[in-house]
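Continuing from the previous page...

OK, I double-checked the sequence for Integrase_H2C2 domain-containing protein against my notes and this is the correct one:
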Amino acid sequence: MEVKSVLNKCMTCRRWRAKPFKLPGMPNVPETRTIRTRTFENVGLDYLGPLTIKGESGLIKRWIALFTCFTTRAVHLELVDDLTAESFVHVFRRFSARR
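Thanks. Re-ran it with the corrected sequence; updated structure tokens here:
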């Protein structure tokens, strides 16, 4: 038992017994990210903010809708007035009309 504990504490011995670094395996990628498709055919959505913007009536809170293409990782930003469902529908319609 004593020899084993000495070998475990010895840095030189630990280096000689060390195994080389092995790269982890590749994760399973969804098919939507590997098949060639049009840009922004498959997207992810996230909100960024709130951002304080100086307006005519003082400081206003605004958010940014961040659309990310799954295939090309391209980014599209849209300014959002608030976090209501109605505001989301307006932003999504603007995004769909442009892309």
